[in-house]
Amino acid sequence: MPDQRVHAHPAASADWLRAARTARALSVVTLVWLGLESSLGLAAGVAAHSVALIGWGLAALVEAAASLIVVWRFTGSRTLSAGAELKARRAVAVSFWVLAPYLVVHVAHDLDAGHRPAPSTLGIVVTAVSMVSMPALGLAKRRLGLRLASPSTSGEGTQNLICATMAAGVLAGLWLNTFGWWWLDPAMALALAAVAVREGTRAWRGHECCH
Questions:
Q1: pTM for the whole thing?
Q2: Suppose 88 and one of 5, 111, 125, 152 were both cysteines; which one would form an S-S bond, judging by CB atoms 3.0 to 4.6 Å apart?
Q3: Distance between CA 163 and CA 54 in Å, rounded?
């Protein structure tokens, strides 16, 4: 039997509702992974005395906020609420803006303290898995965001892509530091902070974050 909500809201097709359920399910999966990623990243960072890994683990908690927002957005009566989408979109924008200054402060702290990334087997494994898995999740959510006309979903996908890029930056820092290229890690973080500011502004204004 067709979903009764489709009859109440003719603009919401059965395909749209399926896409909304998929977006919520992907966000739940992302929440679980980010919780594990953050815990392992922090453990690896403390064990290796690596501020880069510790910072990456903490950043995962900020990224998890976007997933939680999308789960909230597509739960119950909010699924078909334009007002809920507006609130979710702006909350995701704020999560971008929280991430950006964190990255800048983190870089400033590292440079001031003279910290350099240190080898960590656990850290390498966790960041490598994130680097491989997060792009698939991020791209899937951005496609769903376009289908649902949901900037909050697209914005969460963009955060997943930033997470993957951060993982790649940490891995590159761990490796290239052995060649003296210690500056790559802070340079990557500053570039990501600029991206976070831009994408936060786009999310707040309602753009799809699709490029």
A1: 0.72
A2: 152
A3: 14
Q: In terms of residues, how long is the chain? A: 211
Amino acid (1-letter code) at residue 170: V
Q: What is the pLDDT of residue 42?
A: 85
Confidence of residue 24 (pLDDT cuts 50, 70, 90): very high
Q: Which residues of 115-125 are buried (b: 16+ CB within 10 A; e: fewer)?
A: bbbbebeebbe
Angle, in degrees to the nearest 10, between helices 51-73 and 121-148: 30
Amino acid letter, 147: R
Which of 106, 119, 124, 12 is CA-nearest to residue 51? 106
Residue closest to 126 by CA, chosen among 191, 185, 52, 184 = 52
Is 80 exceeded by the pLDDT of residue 177?
Answer: no
